[in-house]
Amino acid sequence: MPGQVPVEEWDTLHTMIYADEMSRSGLAVLPGSITTGVAFGIPPLLHYAEPQLQERFLLDLLVERKRICIAITEPDASSDVANITTTATLNYASMAVRTGGENSGGKGISLILVPLKDHPGVTRRRLKIAGQIVAGTSFIELDDVRVRPENLIGRENEGMKYIMYNFNHERMFISVGVTSDFVKTLMEQPVVRHRLAKCGAILEAQWSWVESFAYQLSKMPKETADQELGSLTALCKANAGIVLDECARCAVLLFGGNGSTRTGKGEIAEKIYREVPWARIPGGSEDVLLDLAIR
């Protein structure tokens, strides 16, 4: 493990530090290329799958002999996981599919491990996205794909619960990353100091919130954290995107014309600003998370 930390001692506070260090470049390229699939695809398998399924896949995934992703977004459903239409009938992506009847909503979702490479009926193609292109976001098409029944992760029709619990970790990871982008003074005029002070205030408040969640996640039993922290982590992640948007716009404005160029002194500010939507959408889009938190 990083920092020579024994694996049995690794907790959420270590994850927070790791995510912070990975984000110090100011770009999402490094964490996006290294951790995205592993960080979000393995936890459902680790926490909810039957032992036989874990024995078949976990070791190869953890040492990266195999790769995994999580597939929960459809073209027509977007961030609304409860309304996905991909259907599985009883007869290596952790994939959300509908196993309940029509209009079953979130109560009819199950998670299934689906092999991707050279598997009959599975086709993949790269998606061109606005930011974090190294994350490997892809379109997966399933045409009458056959999967072993024992590839079901957890219990049938309880996948929505597993997905929501999995988001707690993902949202904290995103929240950490967006607070590490602006750490240097851009100009020395009073108006700049005023703008940077405002950004510093909201960044410090957001970081304090993230640290609080990291502490709670490291001390609470997982079952308790899953149930008690869901709405609060949703609110924290939504606010992290708002904070990043404010700070990114501030940096672009302070750089003036240089803030709109992809090379030169303002290139980092321009790249961060271009990637703002990819902090506000993954892990649950901002409006969805705010509604979840208030409910």
From TrEMBL:
It comes from the Eukaryota. Keywords: FAD, Flavoprotein, Oxidoreductase. GO terms for molecular function: acyl-CoA dehydrogenase activity; flavin adenine dinucleotide binding. One of its GO terms (cellular component) is cytoplasm. Residues 158-292 form the Acyl-CoA dehydrogenase/oxidase C-terminal domain. Its cofactor is FAD. GO terms for biological process: fatty acid beta-oxidation using acyl-CoA dehydrogenase. It holds the Pfam family Acyl-CoA_dh_1. InterPro entries: Acyl-CoA_dehydrogenase (IPR050741), Acyl-CoA_Oxase/DH_mid-dom_sf (IPR046373), AcylCo_DH-like_C (IPR036250), AcylCo_DH/oxidase_C (IPR009075), AcylCoA_DH/ox_N_sf (IPR037069), AcylCoA_DH/oxidase_NM_dom_sf (IPR009100). Belongs to the acyl-CoA dehydrogenase family. This is Medium-chain specific acyl-CoA dehydrogenase, mitochondrial.
